[in-house]
Amino acid sequence: MLYINHISKTFGDFSALNDVNLHVSRGTVFGLLGPNGAGKTTLIRIINHIIRPDSGQLIFDGHPMSDEDVVRIGYLPEERGLYKKMKVGEQAVYLARLKGLDKDTAERRLHEWFDRLDIDSWWNRKVEELSKGMQQKVQFVVTVLHEPQLLIFDEPFSGFDPVNADILKREILRLKSQGSTIIFSTHNMPSAEELCDEIALINHSEVVLSGPLAEIKAQHPGQDLDRIFIETVTGKTSNNQAI
Amino acid sequence: MNKIPLVIQREYLTRVKKPSFWILTLVVPILIAAIYAIPIVLASRPLEHANVLVVDDSGLFQGQFVSGRDITYFDAGSLDYAKRQLNENDSLDAIVYIPARETTLPSDAYLYYRTDAPSVTVQGDVNNQLQKILRNVILQDVHGISAEDYALITSTSIKLRTQDIETGRDGFLQIKLIVGALLAILVFMAVFMFGSQVMRGVMEEKTSRIVEVIVCSVKPFQLMMGKVVGIGLVGLTQFALWVVLSGIALGGLRITNDGLFQQAQSRHVTEISTKGTEATNQYQAAQYQAAQYEAGMGVDNDIQDLIEGLGSINFGMLIVLFVFYFVFGYLLYASLFAAAGSLVDNETDSQQFTLPMTIPLILSILLMPAMVNEPSGALSTWLSIIPFTSPVAMLFRIPFGVPIWQVVLSMVLLLATFPLCIWAAAKIYRTAILRYGQKTTWKDVGRFLRMGR
């Protein structure tokens, strides 16, 4: 689905990404892991054509990725927001139309989604009247509404209570079963372990570990993903759990 | 796909739907109507009547005070008697006392009152009458000038007109000055008002983090231009509504108030004429003639001047140029305001960027008094050609007549500069809009300008 070939990006003297190579297979959930400032968000922004890499290439669906391909991506940023003074329905329709949907299709699909997530009664309320969890649901719906082939979630669970996080996980798995490819970045290792088919660990602008989750776990017997993460990032092997 | 129209539509509709837009749209015509109506209402409202006693020890003012619609004067022998009357009689308001002088004409007069000081109108009327009577005494008694000559002297005035030596047409400099200053201030306020709306809009998108969601569907440049154009259209809509609603309000006022206005005027005239016939003294009649002349003819002449003066201005060209300088002056500054909004997280920080960039605009308003002296001088000419000051300065000069090559040069330079401003603003904007929580300095701005995507 997506090949990331030799991507590098520097901001002034700071190297944000250094020769990153990754492959995201169609129909999988791909976990992008790494500590804060490692370069995850920069990579996601490059995939979304928000910033341009200094060098390297993206191959999307078999061809070099162009600006037109961006509408086939659904992106839920980590820093996300909505226009506070706008009504929920009006705003969702606007964002969907920016993604290329026509007004009628957008309204029809929105009502379906809002019904399922139990927020349809909020259609005519202003966003500022919504709780944070509800706003997150609206943002999630807007991200997936145009039925993109590739979905990118940056820290999707931050700000969700456990009940809503569980709903979100179910929806992600449902989208996967419908054939979507999903990239999601997170600090939350248990949820990564639960959802991901493949993972990549980025540290200090470089990919330090990548592959199918099952293989990686097999190489680190007896360790959970949290432990693998810490050891790879700090470069220390802890003997604690051997005792 | 070009998504600018969609962004423009949102920016426009969300603002036009706000109650604050309609409040501002209605308040301005109401204010204009009030400015027009209040003097008429005040003029037709009767003032509280005042009764004033006159005690004249000099013997020059006896029987000379003329009662009017609002004030009645009574002669009252001695000061002691008058003081007693003032204390005992509630309907009396004040005493005018003129002491006698042995050799010279009186130089002081007193206005006595009990508890409440007489109104400004009463004080002014007493003062005017004292001056006039005294002048009359000097001219008639000392120099022997007749009542007819006196009326001629007081009613004569000379008007200075400025005229073009070739066309012989009137200059009407004062009217042109007022029209020019109004246009300049209007453009200044509009650019500032709608420019800062652009800035607040950009800041809202940045602080609420919605921008990250949007820039993956829309190029930052499209988002910025959509906002600038959308808010500009809101501005044009507001102007159009102001013009239409003010016209309706003033038209309506004229119809309903015509009766009132005429009533007030005719009462004034009747009072003057009845008082005129009642007046026994020849001087009083003459004085009324003079007053009538001043009130009637003078006002007529002023109105005629105003109409002629306004007629001498080319309004077609003025409107075209007003729209031109508003649109492109706005585009120039609004894109800079957008860049400033993208650089900061709150309004307080924005001042370090907005202040330097609006200096040319503020300067062109501050230098207006200097431009008044020489509307075609070097300062005015330069300010009206330089793109950053030309929207305000050129509109100020237009009513006075500007050589066509200067207008064309100024327009061409403005047209050439605004794309540069938008280009620079877009470069700053697309980098700065995604930077959160970092304090931005002018050094960073330079870096953003050099940086690629």
- How many β-strands of chain A, per DSSP? 10
Q: Please, how many domains of chain A?
A: 1
Number of domains of chain B: 3
Q: Greatest chain-chain interface?
A: A-B, 29 and 23 residues
Shape of chain B: elongated
CATH top level assignment of chain A: Alpha Beta
CATH names the topology of chain A as Rossmann fold
Number of helices, where a helix is a run of at least 4 consecutive DSSP H or I residues of chain B: 16
Uncertain spans of chain A: 238-243
Task: State which percent range the strand residues of chain A make up.
Answer: 25-35%
Describe it for me?
The complex is a heterodimer of chains A (243) and B (453). In chain A, strand 4 and strand 5 form a beta hairpin. By secondary structure, chain A is α/β, with parallel strands linked by helices. Chain A contains 8 helices and 10 strands. Chain A is globular and about 50 Å long. In chain A, helix 2 runs parallel beside helix 4. Chain A has a single domain, classed as Rossmann fold, CATH 3.40.50.300. With 453 residues, chain B is mainly α. Chain B folds into 3 domains: 259 residues, no CATH class; 105 residues, Periplasmic binding protein-like II (D-Maltodextrin-Binding Protein, domain 2, 3-Layer(aba) Sandwich); 44 residues. In chain B, 70% of the residues lie in helices and 5% in strands. Chain B has 16 helices and 4 strands. In chain B, helix 2 runs parallel beside helix 8, helix 6 runs antiparallel to helix 11 and helix 15 packs across helix 16. The longest helix of chain B is centred in the middle third of the chain and has 59 residues. The two termini of chain B are 20 Å apart. Classes of the chains: A alpha/beta (243), B mainly alpha (453). Chains A and B meet through strand 6 and helix 2 of A and helix 1 and helix 7 of B.
